[in-house]
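SEVERITY: medium
COMPONENT: batch folding queue
REPORTER: lab tech (J.R.)

DESCRIPTION
The queue accepted two submissions in a row. Attaching both inputs and their returned structure tokens so the on-call engineer can compare them side by side.

ATTACHMENT 1
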Amino acid sequence: MWYKFMICFIAGIGAGLGTGFAGMSAAAVISPMLITFLHIPAYEAVGIALASDVLASAVSAYTYGKNKNLDIKNGLVMMSMVLIFTLIGSWVSSQVPNRTMGNFSVFMTLLLGIKFIVKPIMTTKENMTAVSPKKRIMQSLICGTVIGFICGFVGAGGGMMMLLILTSVLGYELKTAVGTSVFIMTFTAFTGAVSHFAIGGAPDWWCLVFCVLSTFLWARIAAKFANKASAVTLNRATGVVLTVLGIAIIAVNYL
């Protein structure tokens, strides 16, 4: 039991920091940890990770929203398209024999972390508000479609895809990008967790409880720190967290 607790607690640290700092999906960290060290079936591990993501993303979104770093209006638009096209992408993926992009999110986490360290995002809220509301909604529709389809087809990477597109394509400043990303992830993770448990049955309850509580705790800590930090500090902290998590996940999967 103690071994199970330690693995879940450590997985929750990585997942919580990734969620609170960068809007990263807990599935990218928790799933490989549970599969590798506790030998939990992959489908069940993903379900536990998604369930852990729900509260962690919700508390992070609340913290970012409280500090006015959340774009709910465009977030809802993007979320609707992400949910719809995730289903479509999943169906298309089921028709394709080889899923060559299965490790996409792992390497994306590492590369995105390096990007934040080398080339920080210094966009301001003033730059964001310069974009017309109509153009922003159209951008959200298109980007939500792309993110949803890729996530459904690849099977992972939702948080990282959203962060990349929100900052690089839609021109969000980093805090608002993370806040909007975790807001969307709250609902997508809930949908995914419910479907996994409905199809695969009840999970290992101890693992579920340990992972949910640990991820929630560390996401709360990371989100509070992130909202008080300067743009430069947040970029570096986010970059370091993503880079370390990316290397750790690659090590767990391949070494």
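ATTACHMENT 2
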Amino acid sequence: MGTIIIGLLLAGAAALAIRSMVRDRKAGKSLQCGGDCSRCGGHCH
């Protein structure tokens, strides 16, 4: 029973992390440069 609960908690945390990354991506932010084009070496836009 404990294994199922821990598994559900981990799956929920992973889903929230993915949801956050998708929202950031739609907002124009990226994992590489974080929206600060002066730091990303010209890979933005």
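NOTES FROM REPORTER
The longest helix spans residues 2-26.
No errors were logged for either attachment.
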